[in-house]
């Protein structure tokens, strides 16, 4: 059966946290719980779902603020790409005055966990951060893009570890490799599709026109 996905805009910066599962399995991935852990946990209980893992598209603090609460309540592994572990563990990983540094983060794992019912690829898409990733569910034509790709825009690269040329290279690989009808669930803002972004996202059309 197709995956189910529930979106929670969380925290001061309205990060899109996603809960993803594939009935009849009740095992769920919690992706980018930036805040509001209690709301996410209440949803899992309401839907009789069991958190199997926390998956992070990257380690900026606005995407990880709810990790301690979920990890304490469930004991699940927290996945982050190896190149973002230094950011994940840094006490300077904060966005003052809006988002303070996360406290009580569990030790992460750097190998993607296996989650019953869910089949996905981890696409390394550095540029916004060194260890930024997208989670691609090919069987269901959906891509959870974090802050790599937004509807009509892309992630910023002016924070430590960001690099515009690297991000543009990551975007070009995603646009080339992922089918156009794939629905994109970004880290902020509304959903879109690869085809729509290929046709109208100015950061992508500029590169396509030049190639």
Write a brief structural summary.
By secondary structure, this protein is of the alpha/beta class.
What does this structure look like?
By secondary structure, this protein is an alpha/beta fold. Helices cover 25% and strands 24% of the residues. The protein has helices at 37-46, 67-74, 85-89, 164-177, 194-200, 202-210; strands spanning 4-10, 15-21, 27-31, 50-55, 78-79, 121-124, 133-137, 142-146, 149-150, 153-154, 183-186, 192-193. The strands form three sheets. It has a five-stranded mixed sheet with strand order 1-2-3-4-5, covered by helices on one side. A five-stranded mixed sheet has the order 6-7-8-11-12. The chain is globular and about 45 Å long. The termini are far apart.
Summarize the SSE layout with pairings.
Blueprint: E1 4-10, E2 15-21, E3 27-31, H1 37-46, E4 50-55, H2 67-74, E5 78-79, H3 85-89, E6 121-124, E7 133-137, E8 142-146, E9 149-150, E10 153-154, H4 164-177, E11 183-186, E12 192-193, H5 194-200, H6 202-210
Parallel strand pairs: 3-4, 4-5, 8-11
Antiparallel strand pairs: 1-2, 2-3, 6-7, 7-8, 9-10, 11-12
């Amino acid at each position: 059966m197709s995956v189910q996905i529930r979106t929670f805009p969380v925290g001061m910066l309205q990060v899109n946290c996603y809960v993803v599962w594939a009935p009849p399995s009740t095992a769920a991935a919690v992706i980018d719980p930036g805040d509001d852990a209690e709301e996410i946990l209440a949803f899992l209980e309401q839907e009789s779902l069991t958190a199997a893992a926390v998956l992070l598209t990257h380690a900026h603090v606005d995407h990880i603020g709810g990790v301690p609460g979920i990890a304490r309540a469930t004991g699940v592994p927290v996945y982050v790409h190896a190149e973002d572990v230094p950011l994940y563990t840094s006490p300077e990983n904060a966005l003052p005055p809006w988002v303070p540094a996360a406290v009580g983060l569990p030790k992460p794992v750097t190998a993607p966990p296996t989650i019953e019912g869910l089949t996905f690829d981890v696409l390394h898409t550095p540029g916004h951060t060194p260890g930024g990733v997208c989670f691609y569910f090919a069987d269901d034509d959906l891509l959870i893009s974090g802050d790599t790709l937004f509807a009509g825009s892309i992630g910023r690269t002016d924070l430590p570890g960001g690099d515009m040329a690297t991000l543009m290279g990551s975007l070009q690989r995603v646009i080339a490799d992922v089918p156009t009808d794939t629905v994109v669930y970004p880290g902020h803002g509304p959903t879109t599709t690869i085809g729509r972004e290929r046709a109208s996202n100015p950061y992508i059309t500029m590169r396509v026109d030049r190639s």
